[in-house]
Amino acid sequence: MSTDRSDRVVRAMTMDGAFRVIAAVTTDTVRGALAAQGLIDDVGLRLGELMTGAVLLRETTQPARRVQVSLRDRHGGTLVADALPDGANRGIANPGSDEPVEAAGDHLLKVHYTLPNGALHQGVIGVPDGEDMSAALMRYLHQSEQILSMTGVAALPGPDGVRVAGGYVIQLLPEATREVIDVMTDHVGTLEPIAHLLEGRAPTPELLIATIMGDLEHQELARSPLHFGCTCSEARVMGSILTLPEDEIASILAGDPLEVRCDACGRGYVVEPEDLRDFRAMRAGGARA
Asked: Structure pTM?
């Protein structure tokens, strides 16, 4: 059994095909996001749980596709978590705004991903004040994905904003009988909360799966490393600028170099007007071709 503490997500299934369990440790991934966002408070912990949830939802529903999960408060403040199939993950607090995000109160949980046919899936549920992220994710899976599950996520405060983060999804599969469902439900009911497991006897995904499975025979299906990462680039920045109204683009082209900062990772870009002009010409040429 691996004792490696590096971030990763592991999938396993019982030998009888009754359950699939997905477990993830996301501590360093969350730390990277919180450092980029400058968060060390309850909002940071909420973002850490949301990022962990995004990883678990991607592995449960669309492992080969990007999944974006957002949590919006009643005033419009939003936390956003992106989980990408290459293992990169990022989290953003209120992109494009300096207004604070509320950790408490009523929220809306939204999940976005692209279906294999190219259509955009969007699932939305309300999260009432007092409902934790574990319950919200479990309810989302049931209502929007028709997946029966038991779910647990946690992010605990500590150095660099979080000392441990991770979670699991136990997915009920069609082969499950009433008897084996009762066995799993009773067993999970005896386990410590996910936060205690991560800090105690199950600090790795493999140990978390073994603890959840108990006496049920199972096999590992796949494992993937996780890390904090961003999709930003100079080309993406210039592409975003070119979506502005034409008069604003003209002003930028006639002005001084434009400084842009990525909301997700904090990386700064300096866009020279001449480079933007060349980039627009190149895109226009490609469109004509």
From this structure: 0.90
